[in-house]
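Hey team,

Sharing the Charged multivesicular body protein 7 run so nobody has to redo it. Sequence (433 residues) first:
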Amino acid sequence: MDSKSVKEFIRKEVPDWDDELIATARFKAFSGQKSDWEPKFQFWKSLIVKIARHFGVFIISPPQVKNEWFNRGGLTPLCIDHVLFIMYNEGEITRISDMVGPYSGRITQLFYKVKSLMNRSTMSPESILLEDCLILTTLLKEKADEVIKCLSESHWNSHCVVTRNKFESMCGGQKEGYAVLSYLSGCRKGRYLSTNKKELIEGIKVSLSSAVVSGVSSLDFDTLDLIWTQEKLQQQLNVIDRRWEMSRQSALALLKSGNKKLALRHAKEMKLGTENREKCNSLLNRVEEILSVIANAESTKQVTEAIQIGARVIKENKISIEEVQLCLEELEESIDSQKQVEKALETAPSLDMEDEDIEEEFRKLELEIGSGNLKDLNPEAGVSDSEGTDQSLADALLNLKLADDAPGSGSAIQNSGLLAKNKESNSPMLEAA
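Structure output:
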């Protein structure tokens, strides 16, 4: 993220950025009551967050913000240190040094929290600018949600284990990974784990559901070992592919120059690389199969636990098997009915009618209503003239094949009573339709 790109973005977001009078007022230091400089503070705070979100960062450097982002011909905002200090006091910004160390134990994490509270009370606007890294807490939460969403797309279980390198690459770097894991650890949604066999293997266990992350088990360590091996094998495959391509290019160039001896040597390297790739790929496939078996076993375990819970609930509430079967049958019938409705809606033909055709049909209905056909109704049956008119108009409207999007088609039946009662039913009812 270079300063030139940031300045171009600022000019798009703030059209009057280059206005000298407005810029002079904005660049002044805060003075007076908070109500006097509150709008200016909101402007700078909003602009900082917009820039960081646009460029996909949530860790900012105060000197960079003041001297590069908002530098106008050598002039920098005198209020920016105060802006960052207020954001820090309000919890919208935190120092990376104040964050709980996610790779340490519980006692060390508690020490970090106490230290953070003590440091916050002694901070000043000038000391904020001396910090190397400040974290925008809102964007940190957004980044954590983004990482969890990305992991959920490739994992079907309620939690997953990834290597530390992969987690940090998803977060955007080592500092970013540290901040995101610290936030997830504080929410009890992430946990650090490590194992040391031939070398140190570090990983992160992340909860992909609303529940807190469970404790680390021996299966998690074995899974981490397999995932780490998978990544190492994939890296080795990439190296083999690059070397094979280099040997191929060299062999072709030597053949064109007539040096067949050296070209043959590169051809042998290509063959050796192909054999190594087959061996490496075979191992990679085997590791992926084992990981797939573990994932399927965890899914089966969750289904089994759900069945056991359901059976226990049925037993506690004294629900008979016949009642359960009846509920399942009703549910199946409901699903079938819904599918039939959806199928009918998908296959229903849509009829296009002009407005003139609709008006003509309504004229015919009005003439029908105004004629002497109302005498056929039997008053002794307890049905009034108005109700009979409603019924006859409703029956007539049912015979109309209006398209779903025809104007007034949804409200015609509701207004049928008004049509019958209105003696002069020409223009007003046509307008309502």
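Confidence is low (pLDDT under 50) at residues 348-355, 372-390, 400-433.

Ping me if you want the raw files.
A.
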